[in-house]
Structure formats: C-alpha cells, structure tokens
Write a structure and sequence with these properties.
Blueprint lengths: L4 E6 L7 H15 L3 E6 L22 H12 L2 E7 L7 H10 L6 E2 L7 E2 L4 E9 L3 H7 L3 H11 L4 E10 L6 H17 L2
Parallel strand pairs: 1-2, 1-3, 3-6, 6-7
Antiparallel strand pairs: 4-5
GO molecular function: NAD(P)H dehydrogenase (quinone) activity
GO cellular component, one term: cytosol
Protein name: NAD(P)H-dependent oxidoreductase
Length: about 190
C-alpha cells in the first residue's frame, strides 16, 4: 500500500460531535496504516466566514488560519471532509471556509475560455457525511443534491478527483450498534487512505 499525505477536516462546528468522533477514527486508522495525516477541526479555526466585499478583483485578506488551511490543502494528496448535512447543505462555518479559500488563482484559474482550469489536480477527496434524513429519502425523493454540489461543483471543480461520498443516515440518535458499524467503515477507509 502506498503511503499518502492525508488532510482530515472535521467540519462540525461543535467542540464534540459524532462527526469529530468519526474524523478521529479515520485519522487514527490512517496513521496506524503508515499514512502521513494532518487534522483540522473547524471549531478551532477563528475566521470571518462571510466573503463580504471580496470579489475576483478585490479579495478579502485571509486570516492566518485560512492561509494554513490552504497550505495543508496543497500539501495533501487526499482530502477528507467529515460533515453533517444541515437543512440539505453544509454547516455555515464549513461553507464559509470554502467560500473564503476556494478562490481564483489559488484553487482554480478563471482566465481562460470555457470552464476554469482546476489547480488542485493530482489529488483525491472523500466526504463522510452524516444526516438525520433517511438515506432512501435523500436518494430517491431529493436525488442527493448535496452529493452533486460537493463532488461536481466544489471538489472536482478544483481538481480533487475522484471525489467520493459516504453517507451515514439517521445520525441524530443512532444506536451504539449503528455507531460501531460506522466506526468500522470509516476506519477501513482511513486504513486504505480512501
């Protein structure tokens, strides 16, 4: 097995959560398998999540924690985001991290014709998503819009391919058996660096 450089981002804004637990499970398994792992918890990151006055011609200055996130992102060969789904989307602070750092000239080049050129090629991504919505409702009635947004409009857009999503449903009040099953699945992904 090839050793990978893996960035694990816990996208849950609370100090303790199931998402943090799963992120740590992934990171621990990856380290045990010999991968080089860096871990970030969004609740530890102090930054203004509002893009505010920024634009393509006038960027809002990045706080040091955002600059460090970008360094870690560029260092990584594989990026893992662990996040809850809230109201069909990402938590505001996680979305704010993306809004503030996934900028032209940094993660994509918008100067050419057609679609912008991704600048994070040669890397892969994994999203570990939890939700209270049953998997069948999210898949068959809503057609998994957050999967599409994360994979196609964010991660693959900037070059993180393949971008895979694993979804753990009805996570608000899981049984111990459900959590144990999710722990094993996440640890197996971490061990393989996927």
């Amino acid at each position: 097995m090839t050793q990978k450089r893996i960035l694990v981002l816990n996208g849950h804004p609370a100090e303790t959560s199931l998402n943090k637990h799963l992120a740590v499970q992934y990171a621990d398994a990856a380290k045990a398998a010999g991968h080089d792992v860096r871990m970030l918890h969004i609740h530890d990151m102090a930054f203004d999540a509002d893009y505010g006055f920024g634009g393509y011609k006038q960027n809002k200055p990045l706080e040091p924690v955002l600059e460090q996130f970008l360094e870690d992102l560029k260092w990584a060969g594989h990026v893992v985001i662990v996040s809850p789904m809230w109201w069909g989307g990402l938590p505001a602070k996680l979305k704010g991290l993306i809004d503030r750092t996934f900028l032209p000239g940094i993660v994509f080049d918008s100067r050419g014709k057609g679609l912008p050129k991704p600048l994070l090629t040669g890397r892969s991504a994994r999203v570990i998503l939890t939700s209270d919505s049953p998997w069948w409702y999210f898949r068959f009635f809503l057609h998994r819009p957050l999967f599409w947004q994360l994979r196609k409009q964010i991660l693959e857009f900037v070059g993180l391919k393949p971008a895979r999503v694993i979804h753990f449903a009805q996570a608000s009040h899981p049984t111990d058996k459900q959590v144990e099953k999710w722990e094993h699945a996440v640890a197996a992904l971490g061990h393989r660096g996927e």
